[in-house]
Design brief:
single chain, alpha+beta
């Protein structure tokens, strides 16, 4: 199974134990908002929260042993607009060592074509 697929499945299931194994201890996450840098423990804190963001239409655009690129539609529990999110990840020793996202806010009435 790809690293990104394993990450997405663990996130969807809220499985912090699996995520802990997928995310490198030295992981750095630079989300697209707020100019903050997060750590592995910050990411695990999100998944343990009952109001964690959810996603749909998760797609792996590219992945090899060193890097991965993914895209998804992300919904937030705080009633903010959903976003189309592009993620770039670097891997080390089969784990995610860094992640950075970019996003485009979607209007509240967006509809995915074909759904």
């Amino acid at each position: 199974m790809s690293i990104i697929q394993a990450y997405n499945e663990a996130w969807e299931m809220g499985d912090a134990e699996k995520l802990e194994a997928i995310i490198h201890d030295d992981c750095v996450f630079n989300p697209h908002v707020g100019g903050v840098t997060m750590s592995k423990s910050d990411i695990l804190g999100f998944v343990k929260n009952e109001n964690k963001p959810t996603s749909e239409n998760n797609r792996i655009l590219y992945e090899n042993e060193e890097v991965g690129v993914a895209h998804s539609i992300v919904h937030f529990a705080n009633d903010s607009d959903s976003e189309a999110v592009m993620s770039f990840m670097r891997f080390k020793d089969g784990q995610i060592i860094s992640m950075e996202t970019g996003a485009t806010p979607l209007s509240p009435d967006y509809k995915l074509i074909g759904n």
